Amino acid sequence: MTSLADLLASVFDRRKVWPAPARPSEKSIAELAFELVGSAGEASGLASAAAILAIYSSLDDASKLAFFRMLSVEMNISADKVRHALDLYEASPSRATYRDFAVAAEPPRQELIRRLNRVPGATGSLVRMRADLLRLGRGEPDLEALDLDFRHLFASWFNRGFLVLRPVSWESPAHILEKIIAYEAVHAIDSWDDLRRRLEPGDRRCFAFFHPAMPDEPLIFVEVALTQGIAHSIQTLLSENREENPVAEADTAVFYSISNCQPGLAGISFGNSLIKQVAADLSQELPGIRTFVTLSPMPGFTEWLSETGVDTKHVDVQALCALGAYFLAQAKDRKGMPFDAVARFHLGNGAILHQVHADADRSEKGLGQSAGLMVNYLYDLSRVAQNHERFATTGEVATSPQVRALCAQAEKLLHMEKTA
Questions:
Q1: CA angle, corner 197, sides to 195 and 199, nearest 5?
Q2: Are 375 and 356 in contact (CB under 8 A)?
Q3: Which of 139, 140, 149, 358 has its C-alpha lying 20 to 30 A from 12's C-alpha?
Q4: What domains, with CATH codes, occur in the chain?
Q5: The pTM is what?
Q6: How far apart are CA 237 and CA 374, in angstroms?
């Protein structure tokens, strides 16, 4: 870790040893919430906050939902006060009128969340609370508005400046390794032996972002294979019988699995920073590594194929790859963005849609969601900024010549299907 990260970690570690305030009374969670927002004393505020978190952790889903609905209504902004404060600011802009408008425009529940976070260890509890909110509040406009308050605060608390990048190895603490197994979302880790094959060999790496307030909880992690040339299939990379590649001969870093670990941090982007940081660190550690690519799944491809009416039983491997390239580069949703969420992520990060491979994932999941196809997104560190800018402003997808040729082939195939 950097010296700054060390300093942050030590600060948060000191916070963790503070004694947790005892529950002050048998008041309801709603009463305690209003008491906390109105509290001026630090000790009484910590006591109320600790009691709220303790009570919340014991609630069933129905009671949690009632708590969220109370926050969404009774701790919301007052539209009349906001309008009045804005009128005063427009009539006489000043520090005072702007402050009054800012106070009126911030719902009390934001301050509640901030004060809850003063309790040692509360950050992880609040992340889990938001996970409950996302799970229980889907489809309720008031609760979706409440989530924006969580998201607004989390975007500041979990910004890149506070995150610590750490390698995860076979020598890492067992409780961290257990979470890597549990949180792996792309290619399931079936056993400790499977995990060992991914972490122990010299041609394998794993890196995770941590937050000093949640030092035992990875936020996101990436698994990397150091190879000679670009990998074409996941079964080759993860084979039990593969031979270890000499690291000195490796010229490519393959990011083959990226997993978000905390449902309560959905929408708080870490992946962009993670990939670029890992690529920069690896290029410094291993100057022979010149190529940085992913080997990524294509979730939704088979569903899209079904909707197009293409009969894959009569499509050869080359045509299937062509359709896969078209799906990633040219098939768009109503917002003009690629259908594929993984594609949106990597293209939004400035990657190049480089190559599509057939028979690349023969697992049940891989065959079911993408007909066995996988794709390489190429991270050319000298071009990611301009690629990101073009994708963000015009929706332009950066593609390799191979992918452009495949897309042209797919267009002919789809035209034949329409006219048949």
A1: 70
A2: yes
A3: 149
A4: 21-157 (1.20.140.90), 161-294 (3.40.630.180), 301-419 (3.40.630.150)
A5: 0.87
A6: 13
Read off the tokens for 413.
């195939």
Mean pLDDT, to the nearest integer, of 331-337? 88
d(CA 371, CA 341): 17
Residue 72 CA to residue 219 CA, distance in Å, equals 27
CB-based burial label for 139 (10 Å; 0-12, 13-18, 19+): exposed
Q: Cβ atoms within 10 A of the Cβ of 385, count?
A: 10
Helix, strand or coil, per DSSP, at residue 118:
coil
**Interval 91-111 mean pLDDT:** 96
Cα 24 from Cα 168, distance rounded (Å): 41
| CB atoms inside a 10 Å sphere around CB 129 | 21
For 165, counting Cβ atoms within 10 Å of its Cβ (0-12 exposed, 13-18 middle, 19+ buried), the class is middle
**Residue 9, amino acid:** A
DSSP state string for 255-300:
EEEEEE--GGGTT---HHHHHHHHHHHHHHH-TT--EEEE-B--TT
> What is the spatial distance between Cα 6 and Cα 267, in angstroms, rounded to a whole number?
27
Which pLDDT does position 270 carry in this prediction? 83
356: phi then psi, degrees, rounded to nearest 5: -115, 135
Helices (H), 158-252: 174-183, 192-199, 234-237
How far is residue 165 CA from its own chain's centroid? 15
Where helices occur in 92-173 by DSSP H, the ranges are 95-105, 108-116, 122-136, 141-157
Gyration radius of the chain's alpha carbons:
25
What is the distance between the alpha carbons of residues 290 and 250, in angstroms, rounded to a whole number?
9
Q: Are 233 and 239 in contact (CB under 8 A)?
A: no
Q: Calculate the average pLDDT of the chain.
A: 91
The residue with tokens 């978190």 is 53
d(CA 142, CA 171): 46
Average pLDDT over residues 329-334: 90
Token readout for 353 is 């849609």
Half-sphere exposure of 144 (CA within 13 A, CB side): 4
β-bridge pairing 252-260 and 220-227: antiparallel
pLDDT at 23 over 60: no
Q: How distant, in Å, are the alpha carbons of 258, 301, 342 from that of 367? A: 19, 10, 17
